[in-house]
Amino acid sequence: MSGQQDTSPVFDIEFRDVSVRYDHLPALEHVSFGIPHGSFWGIIGPNGSGKSTLVKTALGLLRPYHGSVRTLGYDPADLGPRRARLGYVPQYATLDFTFPLEVIDVVTMGLYGQIGIFRRITGAHRARAFEALERVQMQDFAQRQISMLSGGQRQRVLIARALAVNPALLILDEPTAALDHSSSEGLYEWINDLHRASGMTIVLVTHDIGVVSEYVDSVACLNRTLVAHGRPVDVLHTPTLENMYGCGAVLFGHGEVPHMVVRKEQARE
Amino acid sequence: MSELLSHTFMQRALIEAILIGGVCAVIGVYVVLNGLSFIGAGISHSTFAGVAFGLLLGVDPLITAMLFSTLVALSIGWVSERTDLKHDTSVGIFFAATMALGVLLIGFLKDTYVDVYSYLFGNILALTATDMWLSLAMTAIVLAVVLALFKEFLALSFDAEVASVMGLPVRVLHYLLLALIALTVVLSVKAVGVVLVSALIVTPAAAAHQLTVRFNRMMLLSIVIGVGSSVGGLLLSYWVDVPSGAGIVLIATMAFFLSWLLSPRRRARHQAASVPPTAA
Questions:
Q1: Residue B50 in contact with residue B162, Cβ under 8 Å?
Q2: What is d(CA B51, CA B123) in angstroms, rounded to the nearest whole number?
Q3: Is some CB atom of chain B closer than 8 A to the CB atom of A60?
Q4: Interchain contact A156–B (C-beta under 8 A)
Q5: CB distance from B85 to chain A under 8 Å?
Q6: Which pTM was predicted?
Q7: pLDDT truncated to tens, each residue of chain B (280 aa)?
Q8: Distance between terminal CA atoms of chain B?
Q9: Cβ contact B167–A83 (<8 Å)
Q10: Which of B165, B213, B215 sits opposite A83 (nearest CB)?
């Protein structure tokens, strides 16, 4: 089970027949896929479809009870110092923004794993955190208290924290959940630019099918099992979505990628 | 004041007040920010059973209390991690069970005179030299661990999940924090008592949280309020002859309400709420 050595793996995330239970309930069943290095993936699915479970499993926060997971070519439990090549942006609603911290403190936290336990933060670390803030155009807010930020700004700060280590793989879990439509679109565009400029592998979890499919190379549709995955244009057709959302849906064209319209009232998404 | 300090018991009490006021305030910051206030109360009540074990076995109650409370702290963490029980349910069960165990054990001590009241509510004026040295040693241990793992505890408190992704030993840190809470409770128990010690941990930190939005400043203010309350409570206990634990906790509580009134954050929120919608 040594995995590949330090050569760049073909897949940055690879699931082989993975099943995961969450709170004793099956959350993912027999999921297999591979996310190639340098690609931009969207993972979509309705609420409770196992999207976050999938991300947490890839990050080693949850252990599968069946199948094997490789992240950056290694078992997530054995990543060790390679964890510094992971950037993770969790759903920000889970965080307490009344916490007494300034923006720069939060971004510097992204480096704690690299700095190492018992070691002190130096000026060089703060400079790197500041650079990450510049990448998300938040450098003017470095000394701002995090409770004073808008939803979009908070999200950018969390992205800067993930970028501080210059990750090879960036995973964002529902980054637009608290944003309005135009801010969401702006953020997606920004992430797309980041992907083009840096070439880092980006995995974007969302239930926002229409918008995300304009940007990603590939999309995985999840509803406890992997319903479909591949290029958005191939994947996002009616039977897939019906399978996923359990409702009648029709798609209409918009450029290359179709958008979904839910036909029946019982659809909740 | 100099006449006051001419008494050995008063010198000891003053050193003890500064020690416990400071160390409770430091640990309190993590307790408040991690939402562990009720766990703190659970651990402090379990100390009573630990004390009772010591009295029954003829060992220094602080030693048995330290072992027992650490065990309870780790068990509370383990039970909430491994079972479907909610955090407050598992604490609620331990809380009452350990208190009952303490009362049961004290009941076996029919022949010996035990000042149960001073363990429940504290008496900072009745400390022995050994008590003070033990407190000093335990304070040094708690502060050394906090200082060494300052940024790790900060990351754990703000975002344990991302801390774990970065490779920080989040579970170890969480259990270590619970153990530090237990140590802090035990070293303060003779001065403020098992019933009141959790207030000395939570209240100064909560007051400091009202006054600042910066972590280091919250830590500093918490220490100032904690030490101020415990020294104030000690003087109150000396001059007015009230139980020291009660005096300390009530002064800390007054500091909390004052901080709440002066809180820039609360006032900013209040002003924001009163701005008419047209001006927004």
A1: no
A2: 15
A3: yes
A4: no
A5: no
A6: 0.88
A7: 677 788 888 899 999 999 999 999 999 999 999 999 998 899 999 999 999 999 999 898 889 999 999 999 999 888 888 877 777 888 888 889 999 999 899 888 876 677 788 888 888 888 889 889 999 999 999 999 999 999 999 999 999 999 999 999 999 999 999 999 999 999 999 888 988 898 899 999 999 999 998 999 999 999 999 999 999 999 998 888 888 888 999 999 999 999 999 988 766 666 655 544 443 3
A8: 55
A9: yes
A10: B165
